[in-house]
Amino acid sequence: EIHTNEKEATEKEVTLHLLPGEQLLCEASTVLKCVQEDSCQRGIYGKLVCTDFKIAFLGDDESALESDETQFKNKIIGENDIALHCVDQIYGVFDEKKKTLFGQLKKYPEKLIIHCKDLRVFHFCLRYTKEEEVKRIVSGIIHHTLAPKLLKRLFLFSYASAVHSNTPTNPKNHTVMFDTLEDWCWELERTKGSMKYKAVSVNEGYKVCERLPAYFVVPAPLPEETVSRFQGHGVPIWCWSYHNGCALLKMSALPREQDDGILQTHKNFLDGIYRVIHRPPYEIVKTEDLSSNFLSLPDIQTAYSKFKQLFLIDNSTEFWDTDIKWFSLLESSSWLDIIRRCLKKAIEVIECLDAQNTNVLLVEENASDLCCLVSSLVQVMMDPHCRTRAGFQSLVQKEWVAGGHCFLDRCNHLRQSDKEEVPVFLLFLDCVWQLVHQHPPAFEFTETYLTVLSDSLYIPIFTTFFFNSPHQKEMNLGREGQDAHSTPLHLLTVWDWSVQFESRAQTLLQNPLYVEKPKLDKGQRKGTHLKHQRQLSLPLTQSKSSPKRGFFREETDHLIKNLLGKRISKLINYSDELQDSFREFYDSWHSKPADYHGLLLPHIEGPEVRVWAQRYLRWIPEAQILGGGAVAMTSRLVGMMEEVRSLQEKINERHHHQRALPAEAPSLLRSSARLSSLFPFALLQRRPSKPVLPTSGWKALGDEEDLARREDEFVDLGEV
């Protein structure tokens, strides 16, 4: 539970709620928060304040939402609050001209426009505000959101020091944090990988490498001193084991050197690893060099920068102006194509693990960006445990947090380098959304869960997404980073959703359509095999059975050349033979009914990869379908499930002579007629004052009498 301190506001009895450790920095009165209309003349008067945590607008909104419609309210970030880390760009309007604001200003704008990383757009008119207050609030907002800052100046530290709570973690939260040796041993046992791999503590205290976690897993025969030879570079690190014995591994590449002596040393080191593991039970390993044979980080950054501009809409006119060229703009951004390539790469890896019985080694410069992305997608598709909420959260902890993904740099929390800001984790969530959208019953969580998880990247009271590595977190928040006499810090993890949402709102994070794994009878268990049922019917892609040639035997030369910076012109991954086997594997899987507790592949053809409508369109009133969309269908399905559950309980009552308990369902979904297609976020938006179609569109439909005779037609923007 978050306890708030209250500061009395003088305007219309509006209260500014401050979190523990939060301080008010500057404020301005008589600010008009404009509605996103053409003229931007209508709005709400109030006070604009800036704290060391957020920008907040305190106004008297007469069109306040009904109590039933505010159940998904975030307890940390309100409707009119912007976390400082969530600010993307700030613009000023000078004489009707929009200009980007940064640094010291000589002239102050009459209107402030703030674009947020969660794609909200705020307009604040300062025309009626005192000049001194305008200077103070504009300068304060620019400085505290865009200026480079030190790690220790993050609000995270102020909050952790100020909050005093002994509230235990939610007992329903079974997320494995992967910060102890026991956690890694548990994961090895769960995936049946303990026969071939071992958890090591050679990096305890981060003596070997600050980039790696304190504990991780390597092949069992590998001597621990080998790990420390090149600070963890060139060492295969275990990610996950499949039930057929094959494993997914990752490796950070050895540094690129020009000196022949060092190159020979590196080659001898890799040969040594090969000799150690060249014996059963290891099979062939296929290498995937993601640094040279996949996406580049600048590609991802450029594509998302173009893509997000489609949704940062300043007014209705701008929305309709871009509507006519929507598809061309969407295609030119290449964001959906990047998602498709990520899903395709994951399926290629899965084909090696499942159909070819081959281990896969992912190689990247630091194994902390694309390795995290691909390995996580592979596990979501192959391991049904990762499609539960606790399993997915544990996966993020293992592959991203413990795996050393540089959240601090990639989210640009310190504003120190725009070039380092690349939305790799958001790309992963978008890829997972494609799977959730295509196979809803296979996931215990909903798209709303993914959306609020993406929003949580920018809330600096959680430690999960605000460090580059476990070592950096330990040095700044652990015992080493604290004074001997200081009180211990209260650290929150993003996985305790009760911090942000009430229990009623949390029901929207749980998928009511999730199909739980059925419990098999003893008779059924006897006939089961370790092999996936789908895999048994797939044609073999290898015409000849290859001998057990050891860990690196087949691709040792390719691996060494790639790791030492000697790129080969044609990589084996893109040969015609592999393309044929991939297509055969992909088509064969999709020709059969899906097993929601087995291997799960997405459709990756052009129309199947879609825009994540809930996240990207939720703040645009014109994009809403009132009473329609996926939420209306879900609402009706939940109603049917209630009836089935009620009938089942009546049957059980007759058999057991017990009183049936009334079934409780997510009450927020009961009245679909009052909901929007972008529920639960669109409830915070006013209905657009303009027609859903532009004037030209209405004329094309014919006269009023003809229009009245037509049936209502809804187009779900999620289908784009």
From TrEMBL:
Q: Which Gene3D superfamilies match?
A: Pleckstrin-homology domain (PH domain)/Phosphotyrosine-binding domain (PTB)
Q: Where is the composition biased (Basic residues)?
A: 525-534
Keywords, in A-Z order: Cytoplasm, Sarcoplasmic reticulum
Q: Which Pfam families has this protein been placed in?
A: 3-PAP, Myotub-related
Q: Which InterPro entries match?
A: MTMR12-like_C, MTMR12_PTP, Myotubularin, Myotubularin-like_Pase_dom, PH-like_dom_sf, Prot-tyrosine_phosphatase-like
The record's region (Disordered) falls at 522-548
What the protein does?
Acts as an adapter for the myotubularin-related phosphatases. Regulates phosphatase MTM1 protein stability and possibly its intracellular location. By stabilizing MTM1 protein levels, required for skeletal muscle maintenance but not for myogenesis.
Q: How does it assemble?
A: Heterodimer with lipid phosphatase MTM1. Heterodimer with lipid phosphatase MTMR2.
Task: Provide the family line.
Answer: Belongs to the protein-tyrosine phosphatase family. Non-receptor class myotubularin subfamily.
Task: Spell out the protein name for this chain.
Answer: Myotubularin-related protein 12
Q: Which organism is it from?
A: Myotis davidii
